[in-house]
From TrEMBL:
This is Parvalbumin. Belongs to the parvalbumin family. Gene3D superfamilies: EF-hand. InterPro entries: EF-hand-dom_pair, EF_Hand_1_Ca_BS, EF_hand_dom, Parvalbumin. In muscle, parvalbumin is thought to be involved in relaxation after contraction. It binds two calcium ions. GO terms for molecular function: calcium ion binding. Ca(2+) 1 binds at D100, S104, F106, E111, D139, D141, D143, K145, E150. Residues 87-122, 126-157 form the EF-hand domain. Residues 1-36 are annotated as: Disordered. Ca(2+) 2 binds at D102. Keywords: Calcium, Metal-binding, Muscle protein, Repeat. The keyword Zinc does not apply.
């Protein structure tokens, strides 16, 4: 009779490593700064192109330049400068979908750090202070994330 090790060795060799990948992936509630940053990195070029179809590239550049320094971000001024405030509800929803890096239907605190990168790849990360202030301003129902309606209300404030 074959030993347990002999019998299981064939099984583990037959199962590709990719079968175990989902076990190693963190669940949404265990996302990390690096994980969200990596997700967003993959979307940056597409996000920039999508934003450019909604907003003028020159307006985006001017707004990003205006808030280049840490702790200077003001969402009201930013949305006005990029021209999002004057856009239709449909365009604001499109912008929201671009900024929702994990396609969860919400912009969570981890994603807010990278909100400027959603407008252009060379946008800076928001500081923790800016991120928390942005979340506090938008999260009207207190669930710790921003839904599309909350985002639209914030943009049109």
């Amino acid at each position: 009779m074959r030993s347990y090790e002999d019998r299981t060795q064939n099984v583990t060799e037959a199962v590709p490593k990719s079968a175990y990948v989902s076990i190693d992936r963190p669940s949404p509630e265990h996302r990390t700064y690096g994980g969200v940053k990596q997700q967003l990195k993959g979307k940056l070029q597409a996000a920039e192109m999508a934003m450019s179809s909604i907003l003028k590239a020159d307006d985006i550049k001017k707004a990003l330049d205006a808030f280049k320094a840490a702790d200077t971000f003001d969402h009201k001024k930013f949305f006005e400068m990029v021209g999002l405030k004057a856009k239709s509800a449909d365009d604001v929803k499109k912008a929201f979908l671009v900024l929702d890096a994990d396609n969860s239907g919400f912009i969570e605190e981890e994603e807010l750090k990278f909100v400027l990168k959603g407008f252009a790849a060379d946008g800076r990360d928001l500081t923790d202070k800016e991120t928390k202030a942005f979340l506090q301003a938008a999260d009207k129902d207190g669930d710790g994330k921003i839904g599309v309606d909350e985002f639209a209300a914030l943009v049109h404030e």
